[in-house]
Structure formats: C-alpha cells, structure tokens
Write a structure and sequence with these properties.
It is built from ten helices and ten strands. The N terminus is likely disordered.
Length: 271
C-alpha cells in the first residue's frame, strides 16, 4: 500500500498493519519464507487482529501477503531437532493460532483474504476462515500436512468438508493436492478470481465498498450465518428475530429507510 492509500501503519516482525480509510490491511511480509508463520509472526498477527477488532472506525479488513505468496503455514525450521514438541504445538494452536482465527470469525466486520501464490497448511485454513476470498488466477490452496505425517489443523477439518463435502475434502487432504484458483471458485471456496497483479486492488476495492454498507447488517448477518451450521432452522429463525430487534431500533435502520424513500445514498454510522 502506498502513502496516499494508508493514513496509519504499524510494522511488526513478519507482518504489518496499515489503514486505508475505514479499511485495515494486515500484510504478511516474510518473503524469504513465503510468509510462513514463525513465533514473531504468529504473535504479531494476533496483536494486529485484536487491534482491528477493537477499533470501531475500522469496518472492513483485508489480509494479504507479499507478491510471491499469501501464507504457506508454519515455518518448518522451527520443527528441526528436538526444539519443538507435540505439547508445544498444541499450546501454539490453542493460545496463538486459535485466538487469531477465532477473532476473524467473531469480529463484527467483514474480513477478506487476498491470495496470490500459495495458501498452504494453516495458511490455507486462514484463507478459508476469512469471510470472503479473492484469488489470483495462478494462486492455489493446499493441505500438505499428510506429506509430513500430520493431520490438517487450524480448523481445516471443519472448513474444508463444510465447503467441499467430506469426500472431496478428504481426498484433497490425504493426497496433498493443490486446488487451483479456478477450481476453488467452482467449489465455492473462493468468491472471485482475478489476474495475479490485481488481487490486492480487487480486495481493497471490495473492502472499501463494503465499509460503506450498514455495519449492523454485516455484523448480524455474519453472526447468524457463522452460527447456522450448529443450529436448527427454528433456532436460526429465533436468533434472526432477536437480532432484528436491535437492528430495527437503530439509527441506521431509520437512515436506510429514509435514504431509500428519498432516493439518495445512505450514510450509515453503525448505531
């Protein structure tokens, strides 16, 4: 992002947080490691997500990588020798990865993944956990865990079957095959596919447009749809009714109706 786009920026090891109006951009920047997660990157990523989650002026988030890669998962150099145990990996997943990925699902803002190159391992899980996914035409998703005798993690065993169905998800996981952008689009894993050089601008433009839309509508729709897999039709119906109480009583609802009747663009304030 250039100086004109960003009005604030915060750099940390391996990942940066920038601001473009009401849109936050979290960008991985470990080019030599294809943006793999090391300890510093994991901690910085979690901190940045907590920052944007708590900032009411931020209405949309874009997560991206540098030009070569989105994120290829855990840095395997950390696994060399006897330095990392299974218990330590469990601790990382529970206290570093999960809070970050859970924040994406829980924050009342739209989160868009902008994927160039590979999104692999727990980096694939990250891309799928985002609300929307824009991919470059040469980008791909990959679950390579079985190649090193691991099972998928980062929520991949929920994310992949829920989107692809069990049989295709299981095949992709145990065969560690690349899922190219075109197939991701066909399977419903991705929303848009554009030229590689246009991925970030497409995601940023989309986020900028969504940031102008009704924040309460985005927040409640996201909550309802992310809750629905574990709920019955009746339970979702009741949840919608409960959320609609606050929506109908909001200033934004009145602004939306007034703008519609007067044929002008609405100015939503998120309240």
């Amino acid at each position: 992002m250039n100086d004109q786009q960003a009005d604030a920026a915060q750099a940390k090891p391996g990942v940066a947080l920038e601001r473009s109006g009401a849109v936050a951009v979290i960008a991985f920047d470990r080019p030599k490691g294809l943006n793999a997660f090391d300890e510093a990157t994991r901690l910085a990523f979690l901190e940045h997500l907590r920052t944007v989650q708590d900032d009411d002026d931020i209405r949309a988030v874009v997560i991206c990588g540098n030009e070569r890669s989105f994120n290829v998962g855990a840095d395997l150099k950390e696994f060399m020798g006897d330095e990392v145990s299974g218990a330590e990996i469990k601790q990382q997943l529970g206290t570093e990865y999960f809070p970050a990925y859970d924040a994406i699902g829980r924050m009342p803002k739209v989160v868009i993944a902008a994927v160039r190159g590979p999104a692999a391992g727990i980096g694939m899980s990250l891309a799928l956990q985002c609300d929307l996914l824009v991919m470059g035409e040469n980008a791909y998703l990959m679950s390579p865990f079985a190649n090193i005798s691991l099972c998928p993690d980062g929520g991949a065993n929920w994310l992949l079957p829920s989107r692809m169905g069990y049989k295709r998800a299981f095949e992709a996981a145990i065969e560690c095959r690349k899922i190219p952008a075109k197939e991701c689009l066909e399977l419903g894993l991705a929303n848009r596919m554009v030229a590689d050089d246009d991925v970030f601008e497409e995601a940023l433009g989309w986020a900028t447009d969504l940031a102008k839309r009704a924040p309460l509508a985005i927040a409640t729709t996201k909550k309802a749809m992310r809750s629905s897999p574990g709920m019955s039709y009746q339970e979702i119906f009741a949840l919608e009714a409960d959320m609609q109480v606050a929506n109908v009583d909001s200033d934004d609802f009145r602004e939306g109706v007034e703008a519609f009747l007067n044929k002008r663009p609405p100015q939503f304030q998120g309240r």
